[in-house]
Amino acid sequence: MNHLLSEGIKATPPSFVRGILQAASDPGVISFAGGLPNPISFPQEELLKSMERIVKTYGSNVFQYSITAGLPELRQYIADRYNRIYGMSLTIDNILITTGSQQALDLIGKVLLNKGDGIIVEKPTYLAAIQAFSMQQPVFYPVALTEDGLDLEQLEKALQNPVKFIYTIPDFQNPTGLTYSAENRKHISEILKGRDIVLIEDDPYGELRFDGERLPYIGAGKLPGSILLGTFSKTVTPGMRMGFIISENTELLKYISIAKEASDLHTNIFSQYLIWDYLEHNDLDVHIAKIKTLYQRQAQAMMNAMDKYFPPTVQYTKPHGGMFLWVTLPDGVSAMSLFPRALEKKVAFVPGDPFYIGIENANTMRLNYTNADCETIEEGIRRLGGELQSFLNRTQHP
Amino acid sequence: MNHLLSEGIKATPPSFVRGILQAASDPGVISFAGGLPNPISFPQEELLKSMERIVKTYGSNVFQYSITAGLPELRQYIADRYNRIYGMSLTIDNILITTGSQQALDLIGKVLLNKGDGIIVEKPTYLAAIQAFSMQQPVFYPVALTEDGLDLEQLEKALQNPVKFIYTIPDFQNPTGLTYSAENRKHISEILKGRDIVLIEDDPYGELRFDGERLPYIGAGKLPGSILLGTFSKTVTPGMRMGFIISENTELLKYISIAKEASDLHTNIFSQYLIWDYLEHNDLDVHIAKIKTLYQRQAQAMMNAMDKYFPPTVQYTKPHGGMFLWVTLPDGVSAMSLFPRALEKKVAFVPGDPFYIGIENANTMRLNYTNADCETIEEGIRRLGGELQSFLNRTQHP
Questions:
Q1: In whole angstroms, what is the distance from residue B134 CA to residue A183 CA?
Q2: pLDDT per residue over A284-317, tens digit each?
């Protein structure tokens, strides 16, 4: 078998998180490992009404083959929304519907990367982006992510290598929950200006800000080569795999569209009609406000519990939105080694390792707070804190 | 821009057919160019009932993230159906749900192909398979497709090259409408036995046989390395992009699953529940019988009209099922050159070129008969026949 496999698939790590989710699926386990939106974010009743309406109104069109770029009406809604909120001047030609944001990552890798090409990523970064890009066997140049955003010195140094693109998640980053400051965004934009490098801003969580003001994008609407990724996974439904690529570079979008056609012809057209109809007949901002209120409460419950139950040498990020926070253990303490012990105590998280390129036994872990109620969060953090305390005692004073 | 692009995307032809469909979208044009199932094949009322049922019964599960391999219940239905009809012994571990069959082609290319690897394809073959595989820059070894199936001499010769897989469409092939004979299948199976080569049987149309008896698969259930591709696009709805991979090689499926996860995490779970619920509550065979009756009538209408209106030097295949037939013009006559003239007469088809590797001005064309009523088919063939006659007069007696 092995000799039949491509180098690309051999270079692609199987998702670590899937394995962990399996381990954490025991109903007795309190899992902070997943990345599931709270079901409150699925407007089930309204979606059912939209289903009935689109079948009645558009008949066979919602079941037939369709065009690769995506439903024009949905692309127009997206263009209008970004134009209104961010003062952009997008048309439907700047929007391509993708089968979730994950497909956008796959398509970008296909269109831009040859084996050995350089790409800059955050350190740590989204593990499924590592997976998608790895298929093309690039050289990763990780740049440290700080409380303010990208480490600019490291960025300038990484840019001395031949690099095709920079992959960033500026708002409520996965896995850290960190947000780039306005200052940091401006600096990055200045550093990239005039360079022939594609800036990717992956923005699945931007709508979920529950603290502070929206910040401007780094490149979207400003740097001509930049790509902005969006999704309805965190605001309407992830199960329908509905994402989108926004770019002013229509030449680049044309190639991405060819890659998409070769990949799955087009995204589920029924779901495109459905999401569009839902958006036309409901106020998305009212719906999102409910999600944000809940997530803020859950994030606060987790932070309160960590202050109460975690040893003082353990640090964590304070997210202004999104779904995750990031815990840093004392130097040299492996979150991976902690994992099986925590699981015995019926609590799960994702150890930091899979979010880095080639780092093992990192002293970090990702916690998700959106898919458990506040009492469960407190109990889970209590269990984790207890195990963490005894683990630190053992590893630090052997 | 160009210097940022990957070699893979530069090697991938944009779909010719999409351009043609655009040209043929003028409402006055009778188009035999598309590959659209007839809307009769979409059980709209029943699907709407299933939507209401699954939202009521499974609630947030139909909207949430899900597992990469696909809904276990749907995979079980598929396993049961193939076990029943073909005497296979599949379990759900032999089935992976894909975002349409097109994604299966993309995933297979990703998992098996390095740049320069050899693959055997039919000559002519499905153009979007050429597109999907081209992304990996393989070397294509085309083997002529005859009335009986693959040319066995050419197959043996092609197999002298280092080859990773063979891509076939044994039933009602796209584009030719040809079906491999039982004899030809047996010979291919014998030739491949013991060789370390993956046989891909792409079977989107097999359920649509309106003439003669079902024939056994070449490799599925027999050759351990073989892959069988199926889809609900031609029997329930293409718009939801719901295909599947069947293989007894669970090791290979594991790698395909990693590639799928990196590509789009999982296929639209709402649509998986929907198709499964529809299949559980309706008799698929009764539904398919209606489609077959219609397609047989349409195919016959097209053949009758061709006998009436086409010059006698023009030949065509007589399909036993599926959606297409294949027209061969006299030697040296370019169907591509005929296309703009036919379009002026308000009739469209797909010239043969994009179905070959590196052949231009082929004397062949693909006609689709499923998406127009019999009167429209007759009128379209009348127009095409007239233009064909005068085109042949001009090109053959200049």
A1: 44
A2: 999 999 999 999 999 999 999 999 999 999 999 9
Q: What is the mean pLDDT of chain B?
A: 95
Exposed / middle / buried, residue A170 (Cβ in 10 Å: 0-12, 13-18, 19+) = buried
Largest separation between any pair of C-alpha atoms in chain B: 70
Chain-chain contact of A238 with B103 (C-beta, under 8 angstroms): no
Q: What angle do CA A129, B238, A202 make, to 5 degrees?
A: 20
Q: Can you spell out the DSSP letters for A89-121?
A: ---GGGEEEEEHHHHHHHHHHHHH--TT-EEEE
Alpha-carbon distance A262 to nearest alpha carbon in chain B (angstroms):
5
CB contact under 8 A, B44 and A52: no
Which whole number is the average pLDDT over A98-109?
98
For the residues of B31-61, what is the DSSP string, one character each?
A: E----PPPGGGS-HHHHHHHHHHHHHHHGGG
Residues of A within 8 A of B134 (CB-CB) are 262
Q: Report the length, in residues, of chain B.
A: 398
Q: Determine the pLDDT at residue A93.
A: 97
The residue written with tokens 């188009």 in the block is B31
Give the separation between CA B169 and CA B229, rounded to whole angstroms.
10
Which residues have a Cβ under 8 Å from the Cβ of B351 and sit 6 or more positions away? Answer: B334, B335, B336, B338, B339, B362, B364, B365
Residues of A in contact with B238 (CB under 8 A): 63-65
Of A165, A259, A181, nearest to A215 by C-alpha is A181
Of B39, B64, B135, the CB nearest to A238: B64
Look at A261 and B14 and tell me if their CB atoms are within 8 Å. Answer: yes
Contact B245, B260 (CB under 8 A): no
Q: Does A164 touch chain B (CB under 8 A)?
A: yes
Tokens of B371: 């998406």
Report the distance separating Cα B153 and Cα B86, nearest Å.
Answer: 29
How many Å apart are CA A320 and CA A315, to the nearest integer? 16
pLDDT at B397: 57
pLDDT in tens, B264-280: 999 999 999 999 999 99
pLDDT in tens, B216-235: 999 988 888 899 999 999 99
Residue B50: list chain A partners with CB under 8 A. none
- pLDDT given at position A19: 74
Confidence of residue B157 (pLDDT cuts 50, 70, 90): very high
Q: B223 to chain A: which residues are within 8 Å by CB? A: none
How far apart (Å, rounded) are the C-alpha atoms in residues B352 and B327?
9
ipTM value: 0.96
Tell me whether residues B112 and A6 touch, CB distance under 8 A.
yes
Question: Strand A350-351's sheet: what is its strand order?
Answer: A315-316, A324-328, A364-368, A350-351
Contacts for B12 with CB less than 8 Å, ≥ 6 apart: A258, A259, A262, B131, B134, B135
Q: Are A238 and B128 within 8 A, CB to CB?
A: no
Task: Flag whether residue A11 sits within 8 Å of chain B, measured between CB atoms.
Answer: no
Cβ within 8 Å, pair A131-B55: no
User: Measured between CB atoms, does B9 come within 8 Å of chain A?
Assistant: yes
Question: CB distance from A16 to chain B under 8 Å?
Answer: no
Which of A261, A278, A370, A371 should one mutate to test binding to chain B, selecting the residue with the greatest count of B CBs within 10 A? Answer: A261
A67-84 pLDDT, tens digit each: 999 999 999 999 999 999
Residue with tokens 């291919």: B188
Interface contact A262-B66, CB threshold 8 A: no
Is A65 within 8 Å of chain B by CB?
A: yes
The β-bridge partners of A149 are A146
